[in-house]
Design goal:
heterodimer; A: mainly beta; 6-stranded mixed sheet; 4-stranded antiparallel sheet; B: mainly beta
Amino acid sequence: GDSVTQMEGPVTLSEEAFLTINCTYTATGYPSLFWYVQYPGEGLQLLLKATKADDKGSNKGFEATYRKETTSFHLEKGSVQVSDSAVYFCALSDRRGGSEKLVFGKGTKLTVNP
Amino acid sequence: NAGVTQTPKFRVLKTGQSMTLLCAQDMNHEYMYWYRQDPGMGLRLIHYSVGEGTTAKGEVPDGYNVSRLKKQNFLLGLESAAPSQTSVYFCASRYDRMDGYTFGSGTRLTVV
């Protein structure tokens, strides 16, 4: 079945450091890919998405490129801020596979220190 | 545009009590979902619905029931609460299978 594997945290960085959170997936069809962010005490918010191969999703300085050849959707940001401290979830929705729900990774907790 | 609204936001129950969590969305979404989130466990799907009048079991359905009598509402019921049901509950919805979810802000439930 479909699955998402993302790097386990926690990840601790200093402000202005470069961030990469790895995400790879397994899907039978042609998935849409998503990154969600969950700030402390809040619900999940959609951060960015990509719907086809080579698409790049971007938002708030974060980027992720849909790589079909490596089945990956790594999240990157060039210079993190303390306010980026949160848990990040990678997810997929397989349009062809008939899946009725998103498949989530386990989440990666990011802490950014001043 | 309210999005997905969950009520209540917080609740403390005694073991054996019952309660209903309400999820309401105003986006005309077909699909609705109930998840629970526990520390270190990520998100686990309880039940979901692919349209008005339909429900289906997720990964951890035991001890919960759901109803989707109206398209905009998805109710999660606990008939006899247990301490193991202490968790944060999230509702989510989406328009179709190509779409991502819109989440509610969560209900923090404690069963003592």
